[in-house]
Amino acid sequence: MLARLCLIILLALPAPALAWGEYGHKTIAQIAEANISPKAKARMNALFRAEKLIATPDCPLSNIADASVWADCVRRDDVRWGYTAPWHYVNMDICKPFDLKANCPNGNCVGAQVTRNEALLADRKLPAHVRLEALAWLVHTMGDMHQPMHGGDRGDLGGNRVSASYGIVEGRMNLHRLWDTPVAERAITQGDPLVRHYSPGERAPMVAGSVEDWAREAWSIARETAYPTAQHGPACGPALARGERARHDDADIEALIPVVRTQVLRAGLRLGAALERALG
Questions:
Q1: What is the dihedral of CA 127, 135, 64, 222, to 10 degrees?
Q2: Reduced to 3 states, what is the DSSP secondary structure of residue 20?
Q3: Burial of residue 113 (number of CB atoms within 10 Å: 0-12, 13-18, 19+)
Q4: More confident call, 34 vs 170
Q5: What does CATH list as the number for 17-279?
Q6: Tens digits of per-residue pLDDT, 217-259?
Q7: In this structure, are residues 180 and 17 in contact, taking their beta carbons and an 8 Å threshold?
Q8: How far apart are CA 133 and CA 117, in angstroms?
Q9: CA-CA distance, 212 to 210, in Å (whole number)?
């Protein structure tokens, strides 16, 4: 009862929308770390020695867990990092044909940053601190792009403008945050542990495809699952009226659990494969 009350209080507090929340991002990073070679892990850890050159003392960057949330932390510094805000998402209308390039001007979207930062990380001619920053962006944006509300949109900033409820919990939660935090945390902790070493046979189908394929995958989940569940109707049917909440009962939440678990696992294994390519 006390834990439930604490959850209600926490969800009622205002908070920025951070894809998967801290727990989700760190879980994705842990999955990746558990599935890279000792050589890649050693090379990754060596880059963290350049942390001081990044000069973000309020946002530590000393290990992969730090790296998973560093990009959200530095967003508080609008003067230095404000230009990176579009790197966390790509708003693609679920009621129009999928078109990643049209919605990613000049590479300012999450998928383009996954590709860009893997290339920077792999370039061993670059200074260590440049590669470390690329590592942090890669770890974070790989997680972001797998959050369906960071890809699908109905003119509502990926659900940020849609009030939502999580069971009986309402507070100041919106549809985007519902996917980021309470559903993600329940999904990760429900069932067998997601953080473990996976065999090559288990990893292969998960890591197949391109960044564009993965962006389409997340967008499709927004279109086929997130919005229909929130609206209790067709994805492109009538949108919720202004001020109307997207209500999620226990059955709705339970149906979302396997979807979110799969996306977190995909993100972790794909991140691991990207780190292996860049550092192995």
A1: 170
A2: coil
A3: buried
A4: 34
A5: 1.10.575.10
A6: 999 999 999 999 999 999 999 998 888 999 999 999 999 999 9
A7: yes
A8: 8
A9: 5
Largest CA distance in the chain: 56
pLDDT of residue 15: 39
Helix/strand/coil for 119:
helix
User: Could you tell me which residues come within 8 angstroms of residue 118 by beta carbon, excluding any fewer than 6 positions away?
Assistant: 134, 138, 274, 277, 278
> What is the pLDDT, as a whole number, of residue 170?
79
DSSP state of 163: B
Whole-angstrom Cα distance, residue 167 to residue 249? 5
Residue found under tokens 């020695």: 49
Q: Give the tens place of pLDDT for each residue, 45-81.
A: 999 999 999 999 999 999 999 999 999 999 999 999 9
- Helices marked H in the chain: 2-12, 21-33, 38-47, 51-54, 64-74, 78-81, 110-122, 128-144, 175-180, 182-189, 200-207, 211-221, 227-231, 250-279
